[in-house]
Amino acid sequence: MRIRRVCILGGTGFIGREIANRLANTSISIKVLTRHRERNRHLLPIPNLDLFEADVHNPVDLHNHLEDVDAVINLVAILNEGKKSGRRFEDVHVHLVEKILAACRDTGVKRLLHMSALGADPDGPSRYQQTKGEGERMALAAHNEHFAVTVFQPSVVFGREDNFLNTFAGMLKITPAMPLPTPKARFQPVYVGDVATAFEQVLEDRESFGRTYELGGPTVYTLEALVRYVAELLDRRRLIVGLPDGLSRLQGQIMQHVPGKPYTVDNYLSAQVDNVCQHNGLDDLGIHPTALEAVAPSYLSGSNTRDRYDEWRRDAGRDG
């Protein structure tokens, strides 16, 4: 399969920008859709990238912008939902997938890479996991000889602009003590550069058609261990108190009413399932998982220029 032009939905986000930068080093041209083009003009210097203002939830916009592409990469997701239309789990993880599949069918798009998540399951304990699982199921059901689908299920993704480690770092900088819900929840953080490499690598690979790849790093951590590691990198002595199950749920009930919803009952429910690979798809793709300890210090501990240079070399595949 020859891919000449790709549309990235969610291309202005943390992972989307990394994938766009990887594809910029190929002959593939990139189309990124955004509701706010002016806010994302910083993407324009990326070679071969066109930025268009559009509403991906609008079937007409989707149809119009998929007419000239060979493949779609869907990265659109939310961790917490709002009350407005387009901000609910079903809107983003299920109904949007339906619209994408319909637009692909109507415009003749022949390839879809769909971002799901570890723990995605229509019967999972949280609404996040249930809707991600339903969207994943629909995407795979659409796979056929004329429309190739590949699904990715990453654990939490880390990197310089992540919303995971950076969130804890921000909290640790301003509070002397941190009550930590579900401290024993287990994660297998995966580096954003490895995720982007996986997407780039399978785009034209027939062996990946119809498959699902779990993506994780080389090490499994508890949430408490991760937070303590972030505190260590920040050189901040903080009292980190792991909350028991009942208080963890109570914190979700309280914090979900705080602006920005830093923690919700749905987050608590998601944490009841280990965010760990049964089989790491990076191994199947020949990608050596990058250790958290090899990257996190460069952006959490006030890295110097040499640290950043080494990270850029690694991302470019020049670390050998």
TrEMBL record:
- Domain NAD-dependent epimerase/dehydratase, residue spans: 6-216
Q: Gene3D superfamilies recorded for this chain?
A: NAD(P)-binding Rossmann-like Domain (3.40.50.720)
Q: Which GO molecular function entries does the Swiss-Prot or TrEMBL record give? A: protein-containing complex binding
Q: Which domain of life is it from?
A: Bacteria
Q: What Pfam family does this protein match (any one)?
A: Epimerase
Annotated transmembrane regions:
none
User: Could you identify this protein by its name?
Assistant: NAD-dependent epimerase/dehydratase
Which species expresses this protein natively?
Spiribacter salinus M19-40
